[in-house]
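Example for tutorial group B:
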């Protein structure tokens, strides 16, 4: 299944990378590995995330080890990632 990060999720990802680059460089590699594992899991099972009460069909996949939540939706044969939010701060990474 094709995966696409929308601009909002790309911005979250860039902010997250910069945050870890400045504060905890080893954490950047750790976070990237866990995110890659989550993306692979979603490619194999797009409905792995929890369905959110949303008319847009949003889903959330928790990445508890890093701790972030990936917000996405399934559009035909494509997964669109909308946000990557830090747990406890849903408006920004």
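The residue assignment follows.
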């Amino acid at each position: 299944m094709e995966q696409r990060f929308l601009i909002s999720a790309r911005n979250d990802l860039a902010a997250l990378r910069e945050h870890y680059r400045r504060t905890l460089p080893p954490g950047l590699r750790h976070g990237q590995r866990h995110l890659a594992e989550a993306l692979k899991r979603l490619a194999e099972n797009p409905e792995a995330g929890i369905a959110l009460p949303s008319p847009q069909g949003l889903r959330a996949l928790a990445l508890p080890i890093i701790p972030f939540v990936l917000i996405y939706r399934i559009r035909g044969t494509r997964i669109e990632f909308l946000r990557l939010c830090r747990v406890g701060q849903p408006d920004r990474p």
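The two ends are 26 Å apart (CA to CA). Compare this with the pattern of hydrophobic and polar residues in the output above.
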